[in-house]
Protein backbone atom coordinates (compact mmCIF):
# COMPACT_ATOMS: atom_id res chain seq x y z
CA UNK A 1 0.00 0.00 0.00
CA UNK A 2 1.54 3.35 -1.02
CA UNK A 3 0.66 6.23 1.23
CA UNK A 4 1.45 9.62 -0.31
CA UNK A 5 3.57 11.75 2.01
CA UNK A 6 1.83 14.84 3.38
CA UNK A 7 3.59 17.96 4.65
CA UNK A 8 1.18 20.27 6.44
CA UNK A 9 1.61 23.77 7.86
CA UNK A 10 -0.33 24.90 10.93
CA UNK A 11 0.02 28.68 11.11
CA UNK A 12 -2.03 28.78 14.35
CA UNK A 13 -2.90 32.39 15.38
CA UNK A 14 0.02 33.86 13.43
CA UNK A 15 0.17 36.10 10.31
CA UNK A 16 -2.18 38.91 9.29
CA UNK A 17 -3.99 39.56 6.01
CA UNK A 18 -0.82 40.72 4.25
CA UNK A 19 1.72 38.32 5.72
CA UNK A 20 -0.60 35.32 5.24
CA UNK A 21 -0.78 36.11 1.53
CA UNK A 22 2.99 36.70 1.36
CA UNK A 23 3.76 33.43 3.14
CA UNK A 24 1.40 31.42 0.94
CA UNK A 25 2.81 33.05 -2.21
CA UNK A 26 6.39 32.31 -1.17
CA UNK A 27 5.57 28.68 -0.40
CA UNK A 28 3.73 28.29 -3.72
CA UNK A 29 6.64 29.86 -5.62
CA UNK A 30 8.94 27.20 -4.17
CA UNK A 31 6.73 24.22 -5.05
CA UNK A 32 7.05 22.18 -8.18
CA UNK A 33 4.55 19.61 -9.37
CA UNK A 34 7.42 17.15 -9.68
CA UNK A 35 7.49 16.87 -5.91
CA UNK A 36 5.76 13.64 -5.00
CA UNK A 37 4.38 14.82 -1.66
CA UNK A 38 1.13 16.60 -0.89
CA UNK A 39 1.28 20.02 0.82
CA UNK A 40 -1.54 21.41 2.95
CA UNK A 41 -1.69 24.92 4.42
CA UNK A 42 -3.80 25.61 7.54
CA UNK A 43 -3.97 29.43 7.81
CA UNK A 44 -6.05 31.26 10.43
CA UNK A 45 -9.72 30.99 9.44
CA UNK A 46 -9.96 34.62 8.40
CA UNK A 47 -7.36 34.10 5.68
CA UNK A 48 -8.37 30.67 4.41
CA UNK A 49 -10.29 32.04 1.44
CA UNK A 50 -7.43 34.32 0.36
CA UNK A 51 -4.99 31.41 0.54
CA UNK A 52 -7.39 29.16 -1.40
CA UNK A 53 -7.51 31.84 -4.11
CA UNK A 54 -3.71 32.00 -4.27
CA UNK A 55 -3.40 28.20 -4.41
CA UNK A 56 -6.03 27.97 -7.18
CA UNK A 57 -4.32 30.75 -9.13
CA UNK A 58 -0.95 29.00 -8.85
CA UNK A 59 -2.40 25.87 -10.49
CA UNK A 60 -0.32 23.82 -8.07
CA UNK A 61 -1.39 20.20 -8.25
CA UNK A 62 0.14 19.30 -4.90
CA UNK A 63 -1.10 22.06 -2.59
CA UNK A 64 -4.45 22.53 -0.88
CA UNK A 65 -5.87 24.38 2.12
CA UNK A 66 -7.67 23.60 5.36
CA UNK A 67 -9.20 25.16 8.46
CA UNK A 68 -7.68 24.80 11.93
CA UNK A 69 -10.90 23.90 13.75
CA UNK A 70 -14.68 23.77 13.28
CA UNK A 71 -17.81 23.77 15.42
CA UNK A 72 -19.67 20.48 15.80
CA UNK A 73 -22.96 22.04 14.64
CA UNK A 74 -23.54 23.01 11.00
CA UNK A 75 -25.07 26.41 11.81
CA UNK A 76 -26.73 28.31 14.62
CA UNK A 77 -26.31 30.83 17.42
CA UNK A 78 -22.64 30.18 18.24
CA UNK A 79 -21.04 33.61 18.16
CA UNK A 80 -17.47 33.54 16.97
CA UNK A 81 -17.52 29.88 15.92
CA UNK A 82 -17.05 28.50 12.42
CA UNK A 83 -19.11 25.71 10.89
CA UNK A 84 -17.87 23.02 8.54
CA UNK A 85 -20.07 24.19 5.62
CA UNK A 86 -18.67 27.72 6.02
CA UNK A 87 -15.10 26.44 5.83
CA UNK A 88 -15.93 24.19 2.87
CA UNK A 89 -17.61 27.09 1.04
CA UNK A 90 -14.21 28.85 0.78
CA UNK A 91 -12.78 25.97 -1.26
CA UNK A 92 -10.88 24.50 1.70
CA UNK A 93 -10.59 20.68 1.59
CA UNK A 94 -9.28 19.83 5.07
CA UNK A 95 -9.83 20.63 8.70
CA UNK A 96 -7.73 19.96 11.80
CA UNK A 97 -9.72 18.31 14.58
CA UNK A 98 -8.57 17.76 18.16
CA UNK A 99 -5.31 19.72 17.97
CA UNK A 100 -3.72 19.68 21.43
CA UNK A 101 -4.28 23.42 21.82
CA UNK A 102 -8.00 22.86 21.20
CA UNK A 103 -8.02 19.98 23.68
CA UNK A 104 -5.92 21.56 26.44
CA UNK A 105 -6.48 25.32 26.03
CA UNK A 106 -10.09 25.33 24.81
CA UNK A 107 -11.29 22.18 26.56
CA UNK A 108 -12.31 19.99 23.60
CA UNK A 109 -12.84 16.54 25.13
CA UNK A 110 -12.96 13.21 23.31
CA UNK A 111 -16.74 13.45 22.80
CA UNK A 112 -16.47 16.94 21.29
CA UNK A 113 -13.63 15.82 19.04
CA UNK A 114 -15.81 12.92 17.83
CA UNK A 115 -18.71 15.29 17.08
CA UNK A 116 -16.37 17.62 15.19
CA UNK A 117 -15.11 14.71 13.08
CA UNK A 118 -18.69 13.89 12.09
CA UNK A 119 -19.34 17.58 11.32
CA UNK A 120 -16.28 17.69 9.08
CA UNK A 121 -17.52 14.70 7.10
CA UNK A 122 -21.03 16.19 6.75
CA UNK A 123 -19.42 19.31 5.28
CA UNK A 124 -17.33 17.34 2.81
CA UNK A 125 -14.06 18.24 4.56
CA UNK A 126 -11.39 15.63 5.20
CA UNK A 127 -10.40 15.69 8.87
CA UNK A 128 -6.85 15.58 10.16
CA UNK A 129 -7.41 14.09 13.61
CA UNK A 130 -4.70 15.08 16.11
CA UNK A 131 -3.87 12.86 19.08
CA UNK A 132 -1.04 12.99 21.59
CA UNK A 133 -0.10 12.44 25.20
CA UNK A 134 1.03 15.00 27.76
CA UNK A 135 4.41 14.75 29.47
CA UNK A 136 2.99 13.39 32.75
CA UNK A 137 1.15 10.68 30.79
CA UNK A 138 4.36 9.73 28.97
CA UNK A 139 6.28 9.64 32.27
CA UNK A 140 3.57 7.39 33.72
CA UNK A 141 3.98 4.97 30.80
CA UNK A 142 0.49 5.74 29.51
CA UNK A 143 1.32 7.15 26.05
CA UNK A 144 -0.07 4.30 23.96
CA UNK A 145 -3.17 3.98 26.15
CA UNK A 146 -3.88 7.73 25.91
CA UNK A 147 -3.56 8.02 22.13
CA UNK A 148 -5.48 4.79 21.57
CA UNK A 149 -8.30 6.10 23.76
CA UNK A 150 -8.33 9.42 21.88
CA UNK A 151 -8.38 7.59 18.54
CA UNK A 152 -11.06 5.09 19.44
CA UNK A 153 -13.31 7.71 21.05
CA UNK A 154 -13.04 9.97 18.01
CA UNK A 155 -13.64 7.19 15.50
CA UNK A 156 -16.67 5.69 17.23
CA UNK A 157 -19.30 5.77 14.46
CA UNK A 158 -16.90 7.25 11.90
CA UNK A 159 -17.43 5.60 8.48
CA UNK A 160 -14.65 3.08 7.72
CA UNK A 161 -14.41 4.13 4.07
CA UNK A 162 -14.22 7.88 4.85
CA UNK A 163 -10.84 9.49 4.12
CA UNK A 164 -9.01 10.42 7.29
CA UNK A 165 -5.53 11.57 8.25
CA UNK A 166 -4.23 11.14 11.80
CA UNK A 167 -1.51 13.32 13.30
CA UNK A 168 0.44 12.02 16.28
CA UNK A 169 1.54 15.13 18.18
CA UNK A 170 3.00 14.51 21.64
CA UNK A 171 1.98 17.58 23.64
CA UNK A 172 5.44 17.83 25.24
CA UNK A 173 6.98 18.24 21.77
CA UNK A 174 4.68 20.96 20.39
CA UNK A 175 6.34 24.35 20.25
CA UNK A 176 8.94 23.29 22.80
CA UNK A 177 11.90 22.52 20.55
CA UNK A 178 11.85 19.02 22.06
CA UNK A 179 11.19 16.57 19.20
CA UNK A 180 10.30 12.92 19.70
CA UNK A 181 13.20 10.76 18.52
CA UNK A 182 12.48 8.99 15.22
CA UNK A 183 12.43 5.66 17.11
CA UNK A 184 9.93 6.88 19.70
CA UNK A 185 7.73 8.45 17.01
CA UNK A 186 7.86 5.25 14.94
CA UNK A 187 6.86 3.18 17.99
CA UNK A 188 3.82 5.40 18.59
CA UNK A 189 2.86 5.46 14.90
CA UNK A 190 3.06 1.70 14.76
CA UNK A 191 0.76 1.43 17.80
CA UNK A 192 -1.68 3.88 16.19
CA UNK A 193 -1.63 1.94 12.92
CA UNK A 194 -2.45 -1.23 14.81
CA UNK A 195 -5.33 0.54 16.57
CA UNK A 196 -6.63 1.73 13.19
CA UNK A 197 -7.09 -1.89 12.13
CA UNK A 198 -7.35 -2.22 8.37
CA UNK A 199 -8.12 1.47 7.69
CA UNK A 200 -5.97 3.00 4.96
CA UNK A 201 -4.97 6.11 6.90
CA UNK A 202 -1.92 8.37 6.70
CA UNK A 203 -0.34 9.13 10.06
CA UNK A 204 1.65 12.37 10.35
CA UNK A 205 4.11 13.28 13.09
CA UNK A 206 3.98 16.75 14.65
CA UNK A 207 6.05 18.38 17.37
CA UNK A 208 9.02 20.70 16.74
CA UNK A 209 9.66 19.39 13.23
CA UNK A 210 12.51 21.35 11.64
CA UNK A 211 14.54 21.08 8.43
CA UNK A 212 17.24 19.30 10.46
CA UNK A 213 15.05 16.45 11.75
CA UNK A 214 12.35 16.14 9.05
CA UNK A 215 14.06 13.62 6.76
CA UNK A 216 14.89 11.20 9.56
CA UNK A 217 11.36 11.35 10.96
CA UNK A 218 9.77 10.84 7.54
CA UNK A 219 12.18 7.98 6.88
CA UNK A 220 10.39 5.84 9.48
CA UNK A 221 8.13 3.17 7.98
CA UNK A 222 4.92 4.30 9.71
CA UNK A 223 5.46 8.08 9.46
CA UNK A 224 3.60 9.33 6.39
CA UNK A 225 4.45 13.00 6.69
CA UNK A 226 4.61 15.87 9.16
CA UNK A 227 2.41 18.58 10.64
CA UNK A 228 4.59 21.65 11.19
CA UNK A 229 3.86 24.64 13.41
CA UNK A 230 6.71 27.08 14.11
CA UNK A 231 8.93 26.06 11.20
CA UNK A 232 6.07 26.57 8.73
CA UNK A 233 5.96 30.32 9.41
CA UNK A 234 9.06 30.93 7.31
CA UNK A 235 8.72 29.85 3.68
CA UNK A 236 12.40 28.83 3.52
CA UNK A 237 12.29 26.41 6.42
CA UNK A 238 8.93 24.98 5.37
CA UNK A 239 10.19 24.44 1.81
CA UNK A 240 13.27 22.67 3.18
CA UNK A 241 10.97 20.31 5.09
CA UNK A 242 8.92 19.73 1.93
CA UNK A 243 12.09 18.87 0.02
CA UNK A 244 13.11 16.48 2.80
CA UNK A 245 9.92 14.55 2.08
C1 LIG B 1 1.57 22.07 15.76
O1 LIG B 1 1.10 23.15 16.05
O2 LIG B 1 0.80 21.21 15.32
C2 LIG B 1 3.00 21.85 15.91
C3 LIG B 1 3.45 20.65 15.67
O3 LIG B 1 3.78 22.91 16.29
P1 LIG B 1 5.40 22.97 16.33
O4 LIG B 1 5.90 22.43 15.02
O5 LIG B 1 5.71 24.42 16.51
O6 LIG B 1 5.85 22.12 17.48
Assess the beta-strand content as a share of residues. 15-25%
Which ligands does the model contain, each kind named once? Answer: phosphoenolpyruvate
- Residue windows where pLDDT falls under 50 for at least 5 positions: none
Reported by name, the CATH topology is TIM Barrel
| Top-tier CATH class | Alpha Beta
Radius of gyration of CA atoms, rounded to a whole number: 17 Å
Backbone shape: globular
Number of helices: 10
| Number of discrete domains | 1
CATH superfamily: Aldolase class I
**CATH architecture descriptor name:** Alpha-Beta Barrel
Structural class from helices and strands? Answer: alpha/beta
Beta strand count: 8
End-to-end C-alpha gap: 18 Å
SSE run: EHEHEHEHHEHHEHEHEH
Spatial strand order of the main sheet: 1-2-3-4-5-6-7-8
Helix content: 25-40%
| Overall mean confidence score, pLDDT | 96
Reported for the largest beta sheet, the result is: 8 strands, parallel, barrel
Describe this structure in words.
The chain is an alpha/beta fold. It has one domain (about 5-245): Aldolase class I (TIM Barrel, Alpha-Beta Barrel), CATH 3.20.20.70. It has 10 helices and 8 strands. It has helices spanning about 15-30, 50-60, 85-90, 100-105, 110-120, 135-140, 145-155, 180-195, 210-220, 235-245, and strands at about 5-10, 40, 65, 95, 125-130, 165-170, 200-205, 225-230. Strands 1-2-3-4-5-6-7-8 form an 8-stranded parallel β-barrel, surrounded by 6 helices. It is globular, with a radius of gyration of 17 Å. The mean pLDDT is about 95. The protein binds phosphoenolpyruvate (PEP). Phosphoenolpyruvate (PEP) binds near residues 169, 207 and 209.
Amino acid sequence: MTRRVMVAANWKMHTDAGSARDLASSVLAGLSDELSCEVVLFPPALFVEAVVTLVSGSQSRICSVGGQDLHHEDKGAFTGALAGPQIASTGARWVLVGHSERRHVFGDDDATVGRKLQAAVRAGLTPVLCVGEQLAERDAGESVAVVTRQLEAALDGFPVDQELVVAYEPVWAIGTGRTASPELAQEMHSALRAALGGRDVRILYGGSVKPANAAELMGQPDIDGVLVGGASLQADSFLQIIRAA
